[in-house]
Each structure stands twice: as structure tokens, then as C-alpha cells.
Amino acid sequence: MRSVFLLISASALAAPVDFVREVRPILERHCQECHGGKKQKSGLRLDIKSEALRGGDNHGPDILPGRAKDSPFIHFLTTDDEDELMPPKGRLPQAEIDTLIRWVNEGAAWPDGVDKAKVEDRRDHWSFKPVQVSGFKFQVSSSAQSAVSGKLEPSPIDRFIDAKLSEKGLHRSPPADPAAWLRRVTFDLTGLPPTPEETDDFLKRQDHAAVVERLLASPRYGERWAQHWLDVVRYADTHGFEVNTERPNAWPYRDYVIRAFNNDTPYDRFIREQIAGDALGEDAATGFLVTASVLLPGQIGKDEPSKRLARQDSIDEIVVNIGQTFLGLSIGCARCHDHKFDPISAKDYYSMQAFVAGVEYGERDLRTPEALAARERLKQVKAELAGLDLRLSRFVPIARSGVKRPMVDARENRDRFLPVKAKRLRFTVRDTNNLEPCIDELEVFTTAGENIALNAAVTVSGEKVTADRHEQRFVNDGSYGNSRSWMSNEVGKGWVMVEFAQEQEIDRVVWGRDRQGKFKDRLATSYVIEVADASGAWKSVADSEDRQRFDTRERTQPAFSIEGLRKEEAAEAQRLLKQKRPLDEELQKLDVSQKVFAGTFRIPDDIHLLNRGDPEQPKEPVVPAVLSALGDLKLTKETPEQQRRIALADWIASPRNPLTARVMVNRIWQGHFGTGLVETPSDFGRMGMKPTHPELLDWLAAEFIRSGWSVKHMHRLIVLSATYRQSGFSFGRNDAAKAAATLDAESRYLWHFPSRRLDAEIIRDSMLAVSGRLDLKMYGRGFNLFDKRGGLTGFEPVEMLTPENTRRMIYAHKVRREPEAVFGAFDCPDAGQSTAVRRSSTTPIQALNLFNSRFTLDTAAAFAARVKKEAGEEASKQVARAFRLALGRHPTAAELGDAEPTVRQHGLAVLCRALFNSNEFLFVP
Amino acid sequence: MNPDLLSPAGRHLLDRRRFLNGSATALGSIALTQMLGADGLLAANGPVIDPARPYAPRQPHFPAKAKNVVVIFCAGAVSQLETWDYKPELIKWDNKPLPGGPAVTFQGPAGNLARPQYDFRPRGQTGKWVSDMIPHLAELTDDIAFVHSLTSKSNTHGPAENFLSTGFTLDGFPSLGAWTTYALGSENQDLPSYVAIPDPRGVPQNGANNWGPGFLPAAFQGTTMSSKSPVRHLSAPGVSAQADQAARSLLQRMNARHLEGHPGDQKLAARIASYELAARMQLSVPEITDLGTEPAHILKMYGADDTQNADKAAFARNCILARRLIERGVRFVQLFNGAYASGGKLNWDGHSDLKAQYDVHAGILDQPAAALIRDLKQRGLLQDTLVVWCTEFGRMPFFQKGAKGRDHNPDGFTCWMTGAGVKPGVSHGECDELGQKAVKDVHPLYHFNATILHLLGLDHERLSFEHNGIRRRLTNVEGRVIPEILA
Question: 2.60.40, 1.20.120, 3.40.720, 3.30.70: which CATH number matches B55-235+292-485?
């Protein structure tokens, strides 16, 4: 910038710089390649007056009229810093720089009306405009089937499709054979193949509408369609990231989604429940808000920037989820800069954050009637257990009374002593059986039997943190077991100190390594318990010296020893123990049944616009407001947390929102045809694909709203249409088909039904169903696909069939990012990011898995056993039955002739294994 | 579809289909438009993938310097100060507080500055100072291009390993290897195109996300394999060879008959082809994981014969496996050194007692990894192969309070590359004199990843995939190639 000052005075002598003649050519030649119509690097555009004067993302305004010296625009042209210099290819000729400096200093005159380009109105986009229902109106009955003829009449859908086909010179294919339609619609609505009996029944009665009603009423329907939804919201049963810990109570949300589809919960209500279910008596529905991966407290850095970034990431996931799931918009890009293509500014984005700025990821109590009852029961059980414990504790020998006390036990230990006043209590570990000591719970009881350590202030010598497992706070949180425990950071030693609110008289300490009895390592084998009264004087009240020496060979020692007790005492103790056992068991069960990992809510954070998304660079504060291009709903800063979410949900779930209904009917359409009318189901923005049939999409959206947002109504309309009923691709059929294939290979215009490979879950479920092993138990805690339910590494698959894992795959405990050993390769989403469309890739790994896995061999064996039972010993009957079960049809003579000798020679399981791998089994016809 | 790559049965099917269609050209055009997966692949810049041969070799954007890649991924964050980035000032400042330094870092309060825990000495022609912790690797410095000024977007292992492997801190984005094989396929159709070899002690912190396909087709995910545990489901347990063959041939006939009813359907043909590929893999994978044919001097060179150090011997066998995979044209091999979070016991996360822990880890890494590079070189493979050494971030110049280890440092750390297309013997970029922050030629990891793609003939801005409305890239909206380390 050395030369700038000289030139200022020189410029006064020359005629004023002319923008069009002198400035614009320089901008065109050197700048607009990156800062013009095609690209706007750093958000800067130099071909349109308004945009240029507004400036880019980082330095705007870049041009300060009259102040070349201060203008970033001139700085970047003249800087000596090579990393900053513009253009990056090399410095402009000095004469051109001089011209630009003069131009800026003279006031950066940029005449109106000379620009060659115009700012596009980014709001001028089809999906942001109201749903249009123009042209023909139809009367739609719940069944499009004519009762008299038994034939299906063309539905409104068919008229839209046919209109487009004839416009393209294409024709609908003839109807598929009835068995193929039945198989198709059964897979589509329930994710399972029809049984031979269902096929026979349909072929006899040919009542399409009755079939559809039967399928929609089946609980299997919700299990199938919930899967689509869980894909989109990236549901999983672990927390993700490095530790990938189990998220043990995520599944009530999964069950909520299944129930919602089965009940045909109106879609607008479905939206409201997921965003603000806590206000609607549907706590589990708010699991939607927190489906993403999240860093748990112990995993976040202790420095403040780490905490702020983690919080921003967790709110971002919620906003992104809402945007893409309900609105089909990628809002997330605006976290760092205004959206490049859609009319979503960074301010819009942070205003959306403000709606959910009080949402935390956590567990909350389920308030279903069952859960409320369970909670009541829990209180009772705990009270009863406490009473029994108090009575039992009488039978423990008092420390230092001269009686040898039993050796320490990993499960539970009681130290009784004479009543003493205590303000603080310290438990010091002096040695362990191995490693750093670990204590799952330290309880201190008053003479009245109250545990005053519970949630008291606690200090520890040090800790080795494993987030959500070993943390200081777990040592007195009332939860038992290794996964809620404190671990010292020193081998063989460490101490825990609790401080009570006020001095109290205590007579008992109860502690353990793992009350659930799984872990026996890290046990304090030598320890001392000391107590300080209000004056602060410490004294020792119990230690391990009068216990039996710890010896691991002694494996059979009971948790409670009657040794040293009088005969009557022992009998009484055993009676109490017997009463305790069922209550302990009940307690375990009750604990799980009542929580859901869902949104938990608090006073919202203040949200600021962040420069380039950096939490360390906050700019002006924002209030909750919807995307400015789509509405003007704006709330005050004072709006309470829940009201914010309710307002957002109402705005999304409104019939006037142009995106909501369109996005959902498109997802439903995609579920039936493999591809949506809009090929990019979670992007209805300007980068997304345009609808192939815009009028049809709008008609469906309007019909969806008119029907009361009934998803099942949309299924009926679609699967009973002639479009859905037509046959699949047959390239060899005739010349017309060949020509059509050249024109529209993927059948986007639906000149034939686009067949597709079954999704991973359907393959697995269908193999189990066909083999007679499918367990239809619904809901609840997921079954194991691996030897563990979360954690760092080494997930060993459970490959054998177990009584648990023959349930439908939607009930599997979903470990984020860990592909299921056999079916993961079939494009099963990993729940990292949202999956709006299942891809369908074909790989040799899939072939190896499906051909050789234990799962396939076991289900093939079960299938063979079933067939033998149902068809008897004759090979031809077995082949016929196997074909009917797996493929829904009889074998041809040629197939029979081919399979029979193989079955005779190598056994029926060989045929079953081949059937499970056959293309016919694996494709929706 | 190249008929030569199919079995006689496959060729028969193809011929029959040609016969039925009467037009090979129409079929060809369908092959081009019927893509693997519905979304994205038609994007102007995406590769065109034949569903029947997802791993077929494909052309890069421009002539490539490197055909294959081996990434040596050191999980847990290797300290730059104990390895490649010599900071003699730290010796002067040893055990003194860092004026104006942070009070609290990732794991807690900061302690005093600490000198490098190993001695350094100049090496080779370039005289580059490298630590005595890694004597074998140190001998290779003349061939290496170091980048000493890398930065990460996260100071937490999980997100940071995601960032290194996928360019995003969040879960669920495609890994570098997935992008590479999506773009380029593989030179060998009988082996997986992308192999991830976990450390014998366990998988790294973000597990499968480091070799995941994200939203790319599953075909491009890394297949895990190691000298200890080969690919799953290579054979059917408890099934006799005859029954196995009977099932296979029955399946073949069923599928052939079905295809006759659906002539020209590429998806069906692709599945048939996949079973033939699988059958070949069943033979080629056990062959490649069997190191029995490796001569004694090679085992010795890698340290695979070390009976004193089982972890080192196992890692050495993984290194030999990596070489064998590259030798056979596998596109992308990711070789992990270091497992999951374990207080630094099983990986490079040296928080508590760095020197003691690094003595162990270096003993496992050093000789085998150096031998791998030497072996690739002596076989002429390094001309076509890029070798990358990387870690998710570096470590602080001070110890943690009350400990003898260093905390996480995402603001300045070192990774390097060598081999095809890499300028040998350069050290690019600098941290401040205490090694806390990159100050000269600062490169977010985006740049490092963009450079890897560049060497493979790929433009990181063009290699993209449309996902939920965003044209996704390995380098997000950032990144540039680092020309200073290119030959």
C-alpha cells in the first residue's frame, strides 16, 4: 500500500474515473471469474452493484466510498502478503490498481442500470410457492375399485402419469400378473412376502382393496414404514463418536414411530409430537430431537472453547434434522455462511437455532400410564427394600468388636460402627486386588436409616474418567453397577470424601465394587473409613483389619454372611434375604421401563449469529424466527422454551407451509416406486431436482391435507392405481420398449414399474418369515446384533440364531456406524448422517455374506425343516412347497426337474440356500 | 461390460442377452445411465459406475502420479515434539511455565513446559533432525515430505479422527479411501478395492467411521482384514464342498432362467456377476493373507519374527499384508497403528506418562513401518504408490498438571508423505519455537487431503457426490493442494 498515498493527490488532477469504461473491464477480466455470476467466493460478487457494495461474508462492506485506504477491496489488491493478495494468480498491473483506487476515493460511483446481470430472486422457486391445485378435480373414494367389474378404474394418479407419458411419447405397460402385484404391495406395505395362503386367497377373490386394507391394518405395516422414518432421522441406540456408548433408552422413540404409523397418526400431529411432544403427552416422541451422535460430558474438553463448540454442534444437529426431515431443506450450510443457493441466510439459521436453544440431550421419564404406574411401584419397592436392608443390617457384626468380619466382597460390603456424629466421611483405599480401585456406590446411613451420602457434595483423590461410565458423580448418584461408578486414577489407592449438609449421627457405611455382580476386579481389599464431626476432628471408625484376609480362591462366599450370628438371628436374616430377592429383581426391570432418551428442556441459551460458524466469534444476538423466505413468524427473546418449540411445530405443520405436505407425500411415493417425484427427497431447495410431475405432486399434497394428513390414505391411492399395478421392466418385449428404455432408462415417467432390490431389513425379515422362524414380538429393548451394545471397539457379531434375534430387524439394538455383519453390506444406513434414499449397490461382499454366513445357513436349515414338515418326504413336493413359500409361486416343470435331483442328492437345505440368494427372492417384482 | 472378466457361464449369459436384445449399443447406453444407486452419480463431476463392475478401474481427472495409496494411521495423536518436529527451545524452557499459556486444556489444568522426551540428531543428506524414538523411520527422512503446520478442527479424538479420515468432524461422511475407490475403482477385481487393516491391539477411536462409505454406495466401504483375522464369510462353515458347489450351480441356473424372463435388466446381471466376483475372492483372499510364502529375510526385515514383542510382530505381519495388497493392485490400504482410548496404553494418547508409553508404541511402529516403505521401494512399487503417515492431532509443549504427559493440541502438528509424486526431503510449514501453534504456511487437514487426491489425479473440488441437497466433497468447501511438497 506504499504507493496509495501519492496517488490520492495525483488523482485530483485527472477526470473522474468512469465505471463502465474504466472499472468494469478490470473487474470482468480479473475478478468476476471467482466473484461473479457463477462463483461467489467468500460470498463476494462484483458484477452487480447492490451485491458488490454490500460486500462479502468476511470483510463486507469491501468497498468504502471515498476511503480506498480503509477498503478491504483495495487492501487485497495491494497487500504484500502473498496469501492474501488478489487476484491469487498475481498482482494487477499498477495502472489498473491506480484506477480502482481513484475510483473508490472518488466515491465508487456505480451508475444504476448498467449491470449486465441481475440478482436472482432466490425465493422464486417452485417448492416455496403455495401448493397449486389446478385443472381437474376428482372424486376419490377410499377404494378406486369398481365393485361390479372387479376391475380397477384409472385413478387421478393415473391421469397425471398418463398425461406425462403421452407427452413423452411413452405408454404405460400392461398390468403385472396378480401374484406379482400382491408380492409387490405386501413387501411395500409390510416388508414381508405374502404367504402362500394369502396368495391363494387373493387369486381367488381378486379383491385388491381388501388386500390393501388387510395390509394397512397389520401391525407389520408400522414396522416397515417406521424404518423409512428412522433412516431419515438417523436413529441409533448408541451415542456415536469415539466412545459410542450404549444409549439404553432410545428405543421408546423407535416404538413411538411404529405406533404412530400403525395408528395413522395425522402427519401434522406426528410433527407436533416430535418437536413438542412434552406438551402433548408424548414424551417419547421428542426422541426425534436428539437422535444424532453427541459427545457426552466426559468426552468434551475441559476448556471453554471445547464446551461451546460441543454445544453448538449438538444444537446444529437438531436444526439440521428439523430442516431436512420436515422441510426437505439443507439449512445446515448456513451455519458458516449464507446458503449458496437457497434463500437461507446465516441469520435465518441461527434464528432457527433459537427455537431449540433450550433442548439438551438426555433421559427423561416417560409419562405413559404404564410408566407412571411403574414409577409408583418403584417408590414402593425401594421403600420396602430399604426397610429390609435396615433390618438386615442388624446382623452384620460391628467393626472392631472383636468378631472377625467376612472378607470384602466385590458386590457389597457393610461397615457397622457405634453411632458417631459426622459432618464429613472419608473412605480411603489402601490396596486393591488389582488396578485402580473402583466404587460403584458409597452409602452412609444415619441411625434413622437414611442414606445421607446420596447426592451429597463429593471430593475424590483423582479419577480416571470414562464418559458415562466412570465419573466421580456416579459414586453417590443412587445408581448401582460398573457403568455408574467412580474409578481412581492411581493403582491400588485413592479416596472418596462426602460432606453432609449438616452434622448427623451415623452408624453404617455400605459400599461395593459392582452391585450387579459382573465385575470383581479393582476391589478395595484394604481400606479405612474416617469421620469428621462439625469441629473438623477426624477419627477412624472402621477398616479392613478385622475382616478376613482377601483371598480369591474363596469364590463361594455369599454377599451376606450369617457367620458369627446366633441361630435365631441367622434364621431371621435368611428370611429377610428371601424377601429381598424378588424385590431386587423387580427393581432391575422397573428401572429400564420408564426412561426415554429424548429432549430434556431448560432455559434457552442466548443465541448469537456466529461469524463463520465459530462460537468464539459471536456477533449480534438473534431471536427465534422461521426462515425469512418462507414466513415471518418471529418470537421475542422472552418466549419460554416450550412455547418456542410449539410455535415452530405449528408453523411447520400448517397446511399453508408450502414444503411440509409436498415433502412427505414425496417420501411416501418414493417408498412405493423407489424414487420420488422429486428425486432428492430431503432437498426441495434450488439444488434439488425438480419434480417430474409437479401437478401430481401438488395434487397429492393437497389430497394429503384434505384427508386430514392421513398417510394410510396416500398408500391406498398409490397402490390401487393402475400405475402401481403395471408390470416391471422387460427390455426384450418389443421395439417400443427398447425405444422407451433409451428415452427413460430409469422409468422416471413410470412407463413400467421400476423393480428394485429389497432393503437389508426386508431380506433378513423375509428369510426368517419364510423359514418359519420369525418372532413377531413387538416393541421394547432391542435385541443384540453384536456381543455388546456399545463401546469402543471389537463388535463381534452374533451370527447364530438365538431366541431373541429372530425378531424383525427394526427391533435390533442399532449400534451407530457398525454395519451388521451380514446385512450391513446391503446399504443399511449407519445412522451417522440422514439417509433419505436407500442406495442399492451390488458387491461381492454382499454375495459372500448372503451365501456363506451362519445366518443364511441356519435359516436355510430351518426353512428346509419347515418344508419337510409341511410337504412330507417326497422331493418334488418339497421343491414345490419351497418355491411357494420363498417366491410365492409354483415351480415350472423345468425348475422342478432342475431342483429335484439336487435336493435328492444334497438335501433340501441346498435348495433353500440357493432360493435365499436368488434374484427373484431379492427383488420387488 | 468386458466379457473377458466373466466366467464362461457369465459370458454365456451376456451372449444370450446380446442375442435377445439384438443390440449391444442400446445395452451399453443403459449401462451408462443405470447407475449404482439412484442419487448423485449422474452429477456432472461424478464418476460413471458400471453396476456389474463397481471396482472396474476408472480414469482420474488428470494424469495421476500415484496409482495406489498406503495410509499409516497412528491413532491417539502422536506428539510432534517427540518425533519429527525438533524444538530445541523447549530444552531451555524445560519445567518452566509457559508465559501467557492456557490455564486449562482438553483434559484439565496445564503444567510446565517439558523438553522433548527423546534425543534428536540430524539424519541423512538433508540433515533433518529426527528423534531417537524412531531410529528406523528416521533413516528414511531423505525421501519424506513433512508438513509441520497442520491444524485440526477438533481437539477430541473421535471428531478429530473423523476429520482426518472424512473431512468432517461429525459421524457419517465418506472416508478418504471410499472417495478414492468411488473415483478410481481398483486394478484388481479379485480383491476388495479398499482394505482397512486394524491394529492387532484393536480398532481406532472412531472405529468403522474411519473406513466407512458415509453416503456413498456401500460398495466403496473399506473391507477390514488383517494377518490375524481375514475377511468374513469366505466360506460356509460346516458345508461340504459338494453341497456348496451344488447350491452355487443351482443358484446360477435359477438366476439365469430368471434373467431370461427379464432380458436386459442390468441390476439382475450385476448381481449374477457379483457372485462370480465373490467366488474369485474366496480363492484370492486366503492366498493373500497367507504369509507362509514370505522368505525369512523379509519376515526379519519387518520384525515379523520378533518373538519378544508379539504386538510388534503382529503389526509387522499387517505391514507385509499391506505390501502384498499393493503389489496386487489394491487401490487403497489403510494401516492402523494404535487402537482405542485406553489412557494411552493401546495408542498414542500419551496423557499420563508419555515417555514410558511411547517407548512401547514406537517399538511396535518403527521397524515394521520403515520396512514396509523400504520394501515397496526395493520392489519398485513406490514409483506408483503414495505412502502417507498421519495422526489426528498433535500434543502440547507442556505437561499436564501433575502428570508426565502432554494434552491434545489441534493447532499445530505433523504428518508426512513419501513415494509417488512426492518431493523428497522437504520440511514444509512451521510451528512456533515451542511447537504449540502452526505459524508459517498453516494448513488445515483439508489441504493435506486435497494433496493426496491431487497425487491420485483427482481434483478435490470436482470429486463430489450429491447428498440431501448438498454437493459433498472430502474437503467440504475448503482445501487447496500444497504444491511445496509435490515433486
Answer: 3.40.720
| Sign of CA pseudo-dihedral A21, A22, A24, A28 | positive
Is B283 within 8 Å of chain A by CB? no
Bridge partners, residue B472, by sequence: B465
The torsion angles phi and psi of A691, rounded to 5 degrees, stand at -65, 145
Chain B stretch 339-368, residues whose beta carbon is closer than 8 A to a beta carbon of chain A: 339-341, 343
pLDDT digits (tens, 9 = 90+) for A120-165: 777 789 999 999 876 444 444 444 443 333 455 678 999 999 999 9
Q: Tell me what ipTM this predicted complex has.
A: 0.74
B487 touches chain A (CB under 8 A): no
Number of C-alpha atoms within 13 angstroms, CB side, residue B385? 30
Q: Is B476 on the interface with A (CB under 8 A)?
A: no
Q: Which residue of A has its CA nearest to B262?
A: A730
Average pLDDT, chain B: 87
Per-residue pLDDT, averaged over A269-289, amounts to 96
Question: Distance between CA B302 and CA B300 in Å, rounded?
Answer: 5
Answer whether A458's CB lies under 8 Å from A496's CB. Answer: yes
Q: Do the Cβ atoms of B413 and B172 come closer than 8 Å?
A: no
Enumerate the residues of chain B whose CB falls inside 8 A of the CB of residue A306.
106, 155-156
Bridge partners (DSSP) of residue B128 are: B123
Helix (H) or strand (E) holding A526: strand A524-532
Residue of A nearest to B271 (CA): A842
Mean pLDDT of B386-410: 95
Chain A partners of B278 at a C-beta cutoff of 8 Å? 844-845, 847-848, 851
Q: Give me the phi and psi of B418, to 5 degrees please.
A: -150, 165
**Cell numbers that stand for B395 in this block:** 500434543
What kind and span of H or E run contains A421? strand A413-432
Torsion angle defined by CA atoms of residues A304, A308, A309 and A313, in that order, rounded to the nearest 10 degrees: 150
Residue-wise pLDDT tens digits, B202-221:
888 777 889 988 888 878 88
CA distance B174 to chain A (A): 10
pLDDT at A558: 44
Interface of B with A in 88-147 (CB under 8 A): 102, 104-108
Q: Which residues of chain A have a CB within 8 Å of the CB of B231?
A: 845, 848
The C-alpha atoms of residue A441 and residue A480 are separated, in whole angstroms, by 6
Neighbours of A893 (CB within 10 A): 8
10 Å Cβ neighbour count for A608? 16
Spell out the residues 6+ positions from residue A5 whose beta carbon is closer than 8 angstroms to its own. Answer: A69
Question: What is the Cα–Cα distance from A605 to A318, expressed in whole angstroms?
Answer: 14
Task: Give chain A positions within 8 Å (CB) of B467.
Answer: 833
| For testing contact with chain B, the best of A460, A729, A792 (most B CBs within 10 A) | A792
For chain B, the domains span: 55-235+292-485
Contact B268, B261 (CB under 8 A): no
Torsion of CA B177, B179, B181, B182, to 10 degrees: 150
User: Given an 8 Å threshold on Cβ–Cβ distance, is B20 in contact with A309?
Assistant: no
Q: pLDDT tens-digit profile of B311-360? A: 999 999 999 999 999 999 999 999 999 988 777 888 999 998 999 999 99
Taking the whole predicted model, whether its pTM rises above 0.95 is answered as: no
Q: What pLDDT sits at residue A559?
A: 52
